[in-house]
Amino acid sequence: MMDVKYKDLIAFHGHSCPGLAIGYRMTTAALSFFPGKRSEDEELVAIVENNACGVDALQVLSGCTFGKGNLIFKDYGKHVYTLYERKSKKGVRVVFNFGGIPENLRQDRAQFIDWLLTVPEKEIIQSREVAIDAPAPARIFKSVTCEFCGEEAMETRIRKVAGKTACIPCAEKQLGI
Amino acid sequence: MMDVKYKDLIAFHGHSCPGLAIGYRMTTAALSFFPGKRSEDEELVAIVENNACGVDALQVLSGCTFGKGNLIFKDYGKHVYTLYERKSKKGVRVVFNFGGIPENLRQDRAQFIDWLLTVPEKEIIQSREVAIDAPAPARIFKSVTCEFCGEEAMETRIRKVAGKTACIPCAEKQLGI
């Protein structure tokens, strides 16, 4: 975690932008409660309340990634991340405060990014410990072959259509939905 | 894209595993249709039909990331990725074939990963061009302050409860759901 720099976030995200800088500040604020940790497996879990650019910063910095099952998306459109550490059962909630941004800054994108990366944390971010239930760990299920397309799908996503085993896209096609 | 190695995928995902190796092979197969490209912005869009480990390989290799809006998740539990290039309007569908894996290989995890990384592509992957509609680009909306918690939420996620502006968590709390 300690070796990850903003340029590494740009390399992953593909470009620099205010959203990425916001995610950088929010994630480093959250991780300051869990020193030295980047999640190799599911030690940390992140619950993100938006799917904006900043979540890419969170993925790289925290190791809570879409493919690992420890990135939970709640589609609330809010700049809020909650990080949870399974071992300590500690939760931290971080909120970005748009009201802290001087209005004239937004006009110059490069200057705005610089400002976001360097402004004192307390001016743009609120963070506090919270009590939350442990999120369910990611699970792996066996695959079953769809009798319509012949492709495999996870058994929990298999449907029955006219007595046949169907993956969701084939089931919807058969049912005309 | 060309400089990304399997070790870079491990660095992002946090560990090596068969799922990451599968994602590596699926993504490189898909990207072979779009030479030299890693999506800096939304030039490429990926539609993934699972949220398993392999999607982390896809994020790093293709630049289709959760935070950039060009990673579309369809929860079908299928090892299928479809990549779409906006400029050429070309789509490519890649399917992983679990039937191609010798049964005894799965018992030795390290050996299984090595095999997945080196087996000829045609034994485990089917890829073909497909015609698909262009996915909608990511959009940014303004934020509105929730009158209950005082936090901001994207205007498309704002609800009205008892005549007041509410974010989704506050709306659900007010309504007891």
Which percent bin holds the helix content of chain A?
25-40%
In percent, how much strand structure appears in the residues of chain A?
15-25%
Q: Tell me, rounded to a whole number, the average pLDDT of chain A.
A: 94
Strand order of the largest sheet of chain A: 2-1-3-4-5
pLDDT below 50 for ≥5 consecutive residues: which ranges of chain A? none
Oligomer designation:
homodimer
What's the Cα radius of gyration of chain A?
A: 20 Å
CATH class of the largest domain in chain A: Alpha Beta
What is the annotated CATH architecture of the largest domain in chain A?
2-Layer Sandwich
The greatest interface between two protein chains, and residues involved on each side, is: A-B, 54 and 53 residues
> Between the first and last Cα atoms of chain A, what is the distance in angstroms?
46 Å
CATH topology of the largest domain in chain A: 60s Ribosomal Protein L30, Chain: A
Sheet having the most strands of chain A: 5 strands, mixed
Shape of chain A: elongated
Work out the count of structural domains of chain A: 2
Classify the secondary structure makeup of chain A into a structural class.
alpha+beta
Listing every helix as H and every strand as E from the N terminus to the C terminus, the arrangement of chain A reads: HHEHEEEHEEEEEH
Summary?
The structure is a homodimer of 177-residue chains. Chain A is α+β, with helices and mostly antiparallel strands and 177 residues long.
Task: Tell me the layout of helices and strands.
The structure is a homodimer of 177-residue chains.
Chain A: H1 6-13, H2 18-31, E1 44-48, H3 54-62, E2 71-73, E3 80-85, E4 90-96, H4 109-118, E5 125-130, E6 143-145, E7 152-154, E8 159-161, E9 164-166, H5 168-175
Parallel strand pairs in A: 1-2
Antiparallel strand pairs in A: 1-3, 3-4, 4-5, 6-7, 8-9
